[in-house]
Design goal:
Helix content: 55-70%
Order of helices and strands: HHHHEEHH
Number of helices: 6
CATH topology of the largest domain: Serine Threonine Protein Phosphatase 5, Tetratricopeptide repeat
Shape: elongated
Strand content: under 5%
Distance between the termini: 67 Å
Number of strands: 2
Number of domains: 2
């Protein structure tokens, strides 16, 4: 009888752990904070850019890459999206850099009349 009781206890603990992880991931998705960083991008591209920027500053590099790429998918001429993507290839917390990938993305950045002075300075 005891092994069954232990198995149930282990099963309960596993279910509780999975539920806690799901809640943690959900909270992480929604609690990145609020970032204000005006750009020349459209409202839709800007929303993804801000999410990427918040993720980048939370060291959530995969999420940041995804958000910046979505911003430039929506608006291919949104240069700040490429800037953010390049920045997300640098992981200073772990002393990791994908310089080749960052340079490839930087190669997509070009001067456009829509750039603000702040964007030109980046």
């Amino acid at each position: 009888m005891r092994p069954q009781k232990n198995n149930r206890r282990i099963q309960f603990l596993l279910v509780a752990l999975i539920a806690a992880l799901a809640v943690s991931v959900s909270a992480q998705n929604s609690q990145l904070g609020k970032v204000e960083f005006p750009t020349s991008g459209s409202e839709k591209a800007q929303a993804h850019f801000l999410r990427g920027l918040a993720a980048l500053h939370s060291f959530w590099y995969e999420e940041a890459l995804e958000a910046f790429r979505e911003a430039t998918k929506i608006e291919p001429d949104f240069m700040m999206g490429y800037w953010g993507e390049a920045m997300a290839h640098n992981h200073p917390l772990w002393s990791e850099q994908d310089t080749a990938a960052a340079r490839q993305v930087i190669g997509k950045i070009k001067e456009t009349p829509r750039l603000t002075a702040r964007e030109r300075a980046r």
